[in-house]
Amino acid sequence: MIGLGRATSTRSTYVVWTALLSSVILGELVTPLILAEALLSVSGIWLLPYERGRWDVKG
Predict the structure, then answer these.
(1) pTM for this entry
(2) Distances (CA, A) of 41 to 15, 23, 26, 29, 48
(3) What is the dihedral of CA 4, 6, 7, 10, to 10 degrees?
């Protein structure tokens, strides 16, 4: 189990998937703002395993 906080944050990757699929399927333009939002979302998920001054990556 990863816990409620981590699960909720991981769920927030919809920004990345929405941008990717709308570009591929609908041919929509990916603007710098959309790229920035996706980058922030991925950065937040990347920081999830960091707890109490150490990286908890044991799974």
Answers:
(1) 0.55
(2) 7, 18, 22, 19, 11
(3) 160
Pairing of strands 54-55, 50-51: antiparallel
Quick one: pLDDT at residue 59? 52
State the amino acid at position 59 in one-letter form: G
28 phi and psi angles, rounded to 5 deg:
-75, 155
In DSSP notation, 2-58 reads --HHHHHHHHTTHHHHHHHHHHHHH-----HHHHHHHHHHHHHHHTTTEETTEE---
For the segment 30-52, what is each residue's pLDDT rounded down to a tens digit?
899 988 888 887 777 777 666 66
Residue 25's contacts (CB-CB under 8 Å, 6 or more residues apart) are: none
